[in-house]
Write a structure and sequence with these properties.
The chain is an alpha+beta fold and about 300 residues long. Helix content is about 30%, strand content about 30%. It has helices spanning about 1-5, 10-20, 45-50, 70-80, 130-145, 205-210, 215-235, 240-250; strands at about 25-30, 35-40, 60-65, 85-90, 110-120, 150-155, 155-160, 165-175, 180-190, 255-260, 265-275, 280-285, 290, 300. The strands form three sheets. It has a seven-stranded mixed sheet, with helices on both faces. A five-stranded antiparallel sheet has the order 13-12-11-10-14. Bound molecules: biotin. Biotin binds near residues 70 and 71. Biotin (BTN) binds near residues 70, 104, 157, 169 and 187.
Length: about 300
């Protein structure tokens, strides 16, 4: 190794020691070299705290080996005045929350579970746009880091090969008619090898798509940096317009038949595109064009998950 990288044997030994400290299992064979025998199950806190998560003045990162839900941690931190961009990340969630009151199973070490605090000065009815921004940040990260063909199922499921790889839960806290803060919680199926029977057909993970495990810290950094860039543009414009073309490129629903799960009454329609407010524009069978608002409604494919 020292010949190949043109560094001293001591430099190689030091690098190996530092990997061991981070939890990598390395076997050494005299006069032969080193073999990687195992990657750490948990994230290295040393590396996590060094990762560039974007430019969020004063923001902090909180790491939990176990917590009920990172969304709850961010809510508490928000209450004690934490600035926007504050992140809570957990190895395991005991009460991970999904959309529509569902549970988000969060087994130890295999997923990336994190929540971000946002304090946008925008009108509350525009808040659901931020969920779409987050989905875009994840989609771009998966494409840039791993070259995956990623799609977004409106408003915010990230999909690979027709299966869900990431879910996002946005919670908004109000004060009078203003936004007090927004919590955007993201769960990415990273190194999950097997899914429970009930979601095996509709879920996938980076491990299953790529055939190898990936570094969750690098992924977290890429998502956060993408988020910061898109978030600033969207908040300033008070519109999705600056990122709309990119979002619509990923939209898996485009041109497909969807079932709109509207609490006021479900119906089927043809999905057309997403507009600058983040609404899904659909056309019903009697040619009526409707705007579906992301805050209250979700859609599912008529012939399957997408
Ligand atoms: C969905 O149902 O698709 C949304 C899933 C959101 C899961 C994430 S994991 C981190 C954060 N904490 C939670 O309790 N939920 C979100």
């Amino acid at each position: 190794m020292s010949d190949r990288f043109n560094v001293s044997r001591t430099a190689v030994w030091k690098a190996i020691r530092s990997l061991e400290e981070e939890g990598y299992e390395i076997e050494a064979v005299r006069n032969k070299g080193y073999r990687l025998a195992g990657v750490p199950e948990l994230m290295s806190e040393k590396r996590l705290f060094k990762e560039n998560l974007g430019n969020w003045p004063g923001a902090k990162l909180c790491y939990y080996e176990e917590t009920d839900s990172t969304n709850n941690r961010i809510d508490e931190l928000a209450g004690s005045g934490a600035p926007e961009g504050t992140v809570a990340v957990a190895e395991e969630q005991t009460k991970g929350k999904g959309r529509r009151g569902r549970v988000w199973k969060s087994p130890k070490g295999s997923g990336l579970y994190f929540s971000v605090l946002l304090r946008p000065e925008i009108s509350p009815h525009k808040a659901s746009m931020l969920t779409l921004v987050k989905a875009l940040a994840v989609a771009e990260a998966l494409r840039n880091l791993y070259g995956l063909e990623v799609q977004i199922k409106w408003p915010n499921d990230v999909v690979v090969n027709g299966r869900k790889i990431c879910g996002i839960l946005t919670e908004m806290k109000m004060e009078d008619v203003y936004i007090r803060h927004i919590i955007v919680g993201t769960g990415i199926n990273v190194n999950i090898e097997v899914f429970p029977e009930e979601i095996r057909e509709t879920a996938t993970s980076l491990y299953l798509e790529l055939g190898h495990k990936v570094d969750r810290i690098e992924l977290l950094g890429e998502v956060m940096r993408n988020l910061e860039k898109a978030y600033r543009q969207v908040v300033e414009a008070e519109s999705l317009l600056p990122v709309l073309e990119d979002y619509n490129k990923y939209l898996v629903n485009r041109g497909r038949r969807v079932r709109v799960l509207d609490p006021a009454g479900e119906y089927e329609a043809q999905a057309l595109f997403v507009n600058e407010s983040g609404e899904l524009i659909v056309e019903t069978d009697d040619k009526e064009v409707k705007h579906v608002y992301a805050g209250e409604v979700s859609v599912r494919g008529v012939y399957g998950y997408v």
